Amino acid sequence: MDLHLISATILIHILIFIEHVQFITAFNPVVSTEKGKVQGYRMDNNGADVDIFFGIPFAKPPLGDMRFKAPVPNDPWKGTLNATTKPNACMQGIDKYFNFSGSDMWNPNTKIDEDCLYLNVWVPRTNPPFQNKAVMVWIFGGGFYSGSSALDVYDAHHLATENDVIVVSLQYRVGALGFLAMGHPEAPGNAGLLDQRMALEWVQRNIHHFGGSARNVTIFGESAGAVSVGLHLVSPLSRGLFDRAILQSGAAQNVWGTMPSSEAERRSRKLADILKCDGKAEADVLIDCLRRVPPEDFPKYEFLVSSGIIQYPFVPVVDGNFLVETPAESLARGNFKRTPLLLGSNKNEGIWFIMYEIPFFDIKLPGLITSDQFKSTIGKLFEFYPHFPHKLNDFGQAAVMFQYTHWQDPNNQSMNRYMVDQAVGDLYFVCYVQEMSKYYAQAGMDVYSYLFNHRSSVSEWPLWAGVMHADEIPFIFGSPLNTHEKYLTSEKELSRKMMRYWTNFAKTGDPNRGPNEISLNEWPPFKPRTQDYLILSTDHLHQADKSQAVKQGYKAQECAFWQNYLPHLVAGTGKLIFPYP
For 380-406, how does the pLDDT look when each residue is reduced to its tens digit (9 = 90+)? Predict the structure, then answer.
């Protein structure tokens, strides 16, 4: 063969090899972190590249003697860690109650395991690369007994690329394995919150390697994730690890979100008895026994220690360390991080939870309830107040029934359903969000309040379920922009608008503007007197007068009932008999 031909052939092979290497390198980004190198992958999101890293460890696996303990930093690793596979979900049960995609989407989509303390990072690639990007850290919800950052609905590639922010999501221990509390160094409680805190510490030490700014970190979460955000705002251990906060359908002082140490220990000992450990044993003996219990047994039995709607068995505890007092006390005393807030709730917060409690709220039924069913439902749903195991007396039950009866037509079966939904949503979600908004606004902080009022066109829940708890999440993460989804054009616009609001807030503390931008002037701040809030819905996207989307005093009357009238009524009638003889 001609020597020149051989040389040309070799050169062609070399060039092909070099091109191939560049392709692999370009699409498999490697970042050096504090503990070692991680390799992710690059994704083309409609012409905008995003580097994705799944399953980066931020703590040692909480196995063996580490069960129930606070997390400890993980060891360095050699070589390059493959960060292209979504991480394990922490130990939890699977929701099979309805067994359809509308509820299944919240079940873990990866292996469930105690070895679960990992985080994920989405990094938008700009040209030229821009350092010191704003960082948003997502904390998932799930009642502190379930949830996973690996869910498809939390995929943040749209959120990251549409508005040039780095997004981090984290796993944390849930259920008894995350929140069993014995007031003992081996099981102090709040392990799940301390997992979150350690992930925030990881962000402070490592996010600059990804191009993010440790001085511009916003934490955001929904439901129990929002409660977690609120608890980091009041905890002296967390305040220095982030800058701003977004709370979706939850607040620091949600009554179901924390419990006193005495109740936490009572539940822990009761669970120990159920799991064949001696619940009356000394704490160290009991904990040692519980560490030998198979991890999958905890979610099987933990709900036997409590009862009632939205009465989760193992939640954060006022331990004198992470939480030095109840969150309600912290807010009332002004003992919280001074920072801007963005927070709000959805129109039908209660209906999701009612459907799991009341048989005639089944998704296959028309959702109509008679006046007699309304009365029995109120009695069941408000058996405990303010939380399990404290029962609401007859005077309180009658007051709730009076407040939420549709007096124009008490026999209107669709309104009866709606009013039950509103009662549950107001007590357990809306009014705590409103109250926290007031505390922050009274302290002089910039507060932006919203009501999400759009029912998704692709929702698989019955029409009567309305705008449910968590329905805003797909719009925050850009699900309508997925090409395989069948959202309406107006919903894609709404999603882009909401992502813009959220990321503007993360960058500047004001949802109306990004850095060096003119303000949109669409979303006025919440003030104690006017209580302005923005309605997030496709209905207001193209109105010339954007003020039509701004309303005032959301649920002021109902929240006064729950936070002022009912507590005084119950306190004043504790020993009385109802009805009067």
Answer: 999 999 888 889 999 999 999 999 999
Q: State both tokens at 519.
A: 């303000």
To the query of whether residue 469 is one of the catalytic residues in this protein, the response is yes
Mean model confidence pLDDT for the chain = 93
Angle in degrees, CA 112, 116, 122, rounded to 5: 110
Helices in 291-370 by DSSP H: which ranges? 297-301, 327-333, 351-355
Backbone phi, then psi, for 9, in 5-degree steps?
A: -65, -45
Q: Which of 114, 349, 435, 558 is catalytic?
A: 349
The strand pair at 30-32 and 37-39 is best described as antiparallel
Report residue 202 as tokens: 């990881």
Kindly tell me if the per-residue pLDDT of 14 is higher than 70. Answer: no
SS3 for 561?
A: helix
DSSP code string of 441-469: HHTT--EEEEEE----TT--S-GGG-SBT
- Its sign, for the CA torsion 64, 66, 68, 73, is negative
Peptide bond into 389 cis (omega under 30): yes
Q: How confident is the model at residue 173 (pLDDT cuts 50, 70, 90)?
A: very high
> Is the confidence at residue 461, as pLDDT, over 70?
yes
Question: What is the C-alpha to C-alpha distance for residues 182 and 188, in angstroms, rounded to an integer?
Answer: 6
CA atoms within 13 A of residue 79's CA, in its CB half-sphere: 3
Is pLDDT at 183 greater than 70 in this prediction? yes
Count Cβ atoms below 10 Å from residue 427 Cβ, excluding itself: 27
Q: Based on C-alpha coordinates, what's the Rg of the chain?
A: 25
- C-alpha to C-alpha distance for 422 and 410, rounded to whole angstroms: 15
Q: In the annotation, is 223 catalytic? A: yes
Please tell me whether the overall predicted TM-score, pTM, comes out greater than 0.85 for this model.
yes
Burial of residue 524 (number of CB atoms within 10 Å: 0-12, 13-18, 19+): middle
Give the separation between CA 24 and CA 33, rounded to whole angstroms.
Answer: 20
158 included as an active-site residue: no
The reported pLDDT for the residue numbered 128 is 66
Cα distances (angstroms) measured from residue 501 to each of 105, 300, 399, 454: 25, 40, 39, 16
Give the phi and the psi of residue 450 in degrees, each rounded to 5.
-135, 160
Tell me which of 103, 146, 169, 223 is the catalytic residue: 223
Active-site residue, selected from the candidate residues 469, 479, 491, 558: 469
The number of angstroms, rounded, from the C-alpha of 271 to the middle of its chain's C-alpha atoms is: 26
Give the pLDDT of residue 565.
97
Whether 485 and 492 have beta carbons less than 8 Å apart is answered as no
Alpha carbon distance 478, 498 (integer Å):
9
Residue 256 tokens, joined: 């179901």
Q: Which of 253, 459, 247 is nearest to 352 (CA)?
A: 459
pLDDT given for residue 540 in this prediction: 87
Q: Tell me the per-residue pLDDT of 501-537, one tens digit each, with 9 for 90 and over.
A: 999 999 999 999 999 899 989 999 999 999 999 999 9
The residue type at 221: G
Structure tokens at 180: 């069993």
